[in-house]
Write a structure and sequence with these properties.
By secondary structure, this protein is α+β, with helices and mostly antiparallel strands. The chain folds into three domains: 135 residues, Methyltransferase, Cobalt-precorrin-4 Transmethylase, Domain 2 (2-Layer Sandwich); 144 residues, Heat Shock Protein 90; 130 residues, no CATH class. 32% of the residues lie in helices and 21% in strands. The N and C termini lie far apart (62 Å).
């Protein structure tokens, strides 16, 4: 029987070969962790390698399990016991429900310890996690709690002006309480402290750096742009977004009625990633802050605090993860300011924005990394390959530069030197001292043509699509090249390749499947 048949839909479970009565902490820590995080199941009678061994006296063991949970876990979590027989062997499955009275402590050996789930392990909660459990157990969130600052000492001009600008309505005095900036007693909440013009919350900052290269130590010059921002959470969002956008270059191509722009990073994905980092970060962690690190090939947004429920992203469908809020007051205020949506997962919006871009490939889709209390979003530069390869491998021949794409070798399956001698690879030929530049990223059209091409009609070539010459060159080099290989070489999607091929009337595919090949009608 598959283990999933036993645990059902839950992705959180632990296995125990037998019930350890002399060392109950070995399995009770899982009970505490499941209750403190998102629930789970504990299976007795199955080994670590998923071999079903069964229990000698399942009825007696179930009584001991029930009594031990009630006497050693405080407060007592909700749980239920289930007996199952597999291959004539008895198992006990203990389902622990997610608790609302956190923290749930293990009591024993002179200790009172709370556990949480990190990945597939049950570990002792640190001070930050314990504090968060206490807040949750009181049916509160960090941002809703009273701060140690006075409301009358704070100004909220940024909040008021942005609210007016984005909604058209004036911010009324009564809105301070309805927004959750002050509580019913007039005390400034943590949310209010974070939104004040000169926020007194020192660890509410953004460190922004545009690094020189692919790492934080790529050469003599480490960084070429950097800023440190503090103040209102709204200002942090605006300043952080402005920093990214001033380092967000755009490629473009002309079309009959204007031009189409190709930004390094799609703005909606950037905005969604940044607002999530600020709103869902763990403000109980005073030792860190949000970081924006821009490298040549990627943008990383780091935020203290993992997933709100402590879960892992491993094996999960990012498009179907439900939206959960660590700081619901802040999330509601940003929603009212129309800086984020009330519904929908940020994962989905970021992925969809990248998927919509014409020059996106599978390898360039966003990456989401959760490590304990760290969350890192990586957005890849959609123009990096084209821009980087354009500046590399410049060989000087007779004073004329010729660009050659070395990365194409595995795609082109270039022919032998004999074929080169026969003139099959005409793209690197030099005629009358004029060099033909082969664009290494294969994004733009060839930058120069040989004198032979000019003689054949330069004006005609200019009417071609920006990919036509390159696709034809790929086919001439390898008549069995696949559409996927073309997409890889061009740095675009297979769908874009298919669309471009349909525009080339003299290009056709003869045969089918692996035995087929491309033909060019000259």
């Amino acid at each position: 029987m598959n283990i999933k048949d036993l645990v059902g839909e839950t992705s959180e479970y632990d296995k125990k070969q037998a019930l350890e009565t002399k060392r109950p902490k070995s399995w009770l820590k899982s009970v505490s962790a499941f209750a403190n995080t998102f629930g789970g199941k504990l299976i007795f009678g199955i080994s670590d390698d998923d071999e079903i061994v069964g229990l000698a006296d399942a009825k007696r063991d179930s009584e001991i399990i029930s009594e031990t949970i009630k006497t050693r876990i405080d407060p007592i979590p909700r749980f239920k016991l289930d007996h199952q027989k597999v291959d004539n062997k008895e198992l006990i499955i203990v389902e622990i429900m997610k608790g609302s009275l956190t923290p749930y402590y293990y009591s024993g050996d002179g200790q009172l310890v709370a556990f949480v789930r990190i990945g597939n392990e049950s570990v002792q909660a640190n001070s930050l996690q314990l504090r968060e459990l206490v807040i949750r157990g009181n049916a509160q969130s960090y941002d809703s709690l009273p701060s140690r600052y006075k409301f009358e000492d704070m100004a909220f001009t940024k909040l008021r002006s942005v609210f007016k600008q984005r909604t058209g309505n004036s911010f009324e005095e009564s809105d301070y309480e309805s927004f959750g900036i002050v509580d019913r007693n007039g005390n400034l909440t943590n949310a209010g402290a974070l939104l004040a013009d000169e926020s007194p919350v020192r660890h509410s900052r953004i460190f922004c750096t545009r690094w020189n290269g692919l790492t934080k130590a790529s050469g003599l010059i480490d960084a070429i742009d950097d800023e440190e921002y503090s103040g209102s959470l709204i200002s942090l969002f605006q300043d952080g977004l402005n920093f990214i956008m001033r380092n967000n270059r755009k490629a473009w191509r002309k079309v009959p009625n204007g031009r189409i722009e190709y930004p390094d990073y799609p703005e909606r994905a950037v905005s969604e990633g940044l607002v999530n980092a600020l709103i869902h970060r763990d403000y109980l962690d005073i030792s860190s802050e949000v970081h924006i690190d821009i490298f040549d090939d990627r943008l990383e947004i780091y935020s203290p605090g993992g997933m709100v429920d402590g879960s892992s992203l491993e094996g999960k469908d990012l498009m179907s993860i439900s939206s959960r809020r660590r700081n619901p007051v802040l999330a509601d205020i940003f929603s009212r300011l129309k800086l984020m949506e009330r519904r929908g997962s940020g994962f989905r919006k970021i992925i969809e924005d990248y998927d919509f871009q014409e020059n996106t490939t599978k390898d360039l889709m966003p990456k989401f990394i959760v490590k304990n209390n760290d969350f890192i979003l990586t957005l890849y530069n959609l123009n990096y390959l084209e821009r980087h390869l354009n500046s590399q491998n410049v060989a000087q021949e007779n004073g004329v530069g010729m660009r050659v794409n070395e990365s194409l070798e595995p795609v082109l399956n270039q022919t032998s030197s004999q074929n080169v001698a026969q003139g099959e690879q005409k793209n690197v030929a030099q005629e009358n001292g004029v060099g033909m530049q082969v664009n290494e990223s294969l994004g733009p059209v060839l930058n120069q043509t040989s004198s032979q091409n000019v003689a054949q009609g330069e004006g005609k070539n200019n009417t071609r699509s920006k990919y036509e010459e390159i696709i034809l060159m790929l086919v001439k080099t390898n008549k069995k090249i696949t559409r996927e290989q073309m997409a890889q070489a061009l740095g675009v999607s297979t769908k874009t390749v298919e669309r471009e091929i349909s525009k080339i009337s003299k290009l056709s595919f003869a045969g089918s499947g692996y035995s087929g090949h491309w033909e060019i009608k000259e």
